[in-house]
User: What shape does this take?
Amino acid sequence: MPSQSTQVGAKVTFTAAPIGEGPFTYQWKTNGVEITGATSSTYTIASVTMSDVAAYTVVVDNAACEPVESLPAYLVIRPALHISLAPPNVTLTWTGNFQLQSADSMSATFTDVTGVVTGPYTTPITGERKFFRLRVP
Assistant: This one.
């Protein structure tokens, strides 16, 4: 079961594909805790939130052998940074808590924009180029 990377609000599905004689039973877990009602071969999160970032496993069982728990698959949030130009300003927006960083070039060292972990962020457009990125705080 592979790890998945997605954006806040997206749908994500984890799938178990056991090999052997069925029928199988399933119990999904997040960070080691059973997810109530998650007992099918797939586990779907209809709209991912930051609180869904976790390690997911599934315990598969059948009558022929002992239950087996999968290796963890991790759900990672990949932020989307949106840029709006409205001279004399530029506004950056994103969903979730991510530290905004800036640099003067792509090869320069990015530094935190102090105190900015949620959008929107508005800054004046100047003659100098600025590069922005988000990181997990």
In short: The CA atoms of residues 89 and 116 lie 17 Å apart. The chain has a mean pLDDT of 92. The radius of gyration is 21 Å. The first strand starts at residue 4 and ends at 6.
